[in-house]
């Protein structure tokens, strides 16, 4: 079923009272409950309430400062694959220079949007337990919410956690781990310390395992088992658990005709989970990229065009004369879809995990699927290191402007190699927003050296 006008439909949900960590610590509650919503005192009582609540979770995921444009964009700006050319110099501009400070408004807004999404998911998970209607699909509802919560914690740790050399190392930093909703000022909204990276990782795995067990296979604009498997594979690859990454990626059903499909102007036919937008539920991707119909805040990064091998069909998609891209073009309707995860990423995860676990034949075979679609000859790499280098390049070009490259640089400890001007390794982690630190009264600690 296609999700349309999420912001309209989601007003039934009490999840709209979601509070970010900082705002939850304020001295007074803010009345953000719309007049036709469900009171948090009443909670959910019917399956229709829960359905509206689930729409509210998806709607939060599509917030402007989250997947509506903010989160993937700041990830691509700091990686250098997107260049900042607009007027948001004190926010996007500083992120693009890897000089962001804890008072950066965009960093605060994205942090808030992610935690708001988590809070809506927490509320739905909690309240759905109270519904006894046998027609209510409780497990699949909770599974979708838990997958979105897992993705959100993956994103939080991706930007603000781990270690300067990557993820999954001893002593890695986590983020505040909230698994129950904050619905009113009080004990549930009190500041909490950061969990360790390992503790957050355990919560992510538990959520995704629940989703995998309770969702059906398929693709679309809702979380499916395919998407949950692909996200678990992404997470294990990020954590350098290559055998597990291979195990989960290999369970994702192949996208029909993917290996022989012609490369199209938009690389969406292989989307496993795609966020859809509409005239009443828009995003700002094309608006930030284009001058006509937009404000042209973004251009392709200075090095991404040259990174494409000769004959690469993706160059015409990723880099268009005049500082544009063909991935996001709908400046009038502002309803470009956004790919949360694609089958191309799964193929490249299988390739990389195979190379890292010694199966070079399979690594090359999977890599060549991507190369062939892009119009490139089969790889000439014969060693694991050479294969991984090519796989990482293909990930950069295949998944361009989808918010992935920065996390590849971080997980492979290649930030300073790929971006030698980023010589302050502590900046491999984003700063926690100032407001969170100030309102926590010493409970929450800033990332080192900020």
TrEMBL record:
Compartments, record wording: Cell outer membrane
Signal peptide: 1-24
Chain ranges of the SusD-like N-terminal domain: 96-237
CDD domains: SusD
InterPro entries with a match to the protein in the record: SusD-like_N, SusD_RagB_dom, TPR-like_helical_dom_sf
Principal subcellular localisation of the protein: membrane
Cellular component GO terms held in the UniProt record: cell outer membrane
Keyword list, A-Z: Cell outer membrane, Membrane, Signal
Protein origin, superkingdom: Bacteria
Keyword Transport: no
Keyword presence, Ubl conjugation: no
Sequence ranges assigned to domain RagB/SusD in this UniProt record: 321-450
Annotated family: Belongs to the SusD family.
Protein name: Starch-binding associating with outer membrane
Taxonomic path: Bacteria, Pseudomonadati, Bacteroidota, Cytophagia, Cytophagales
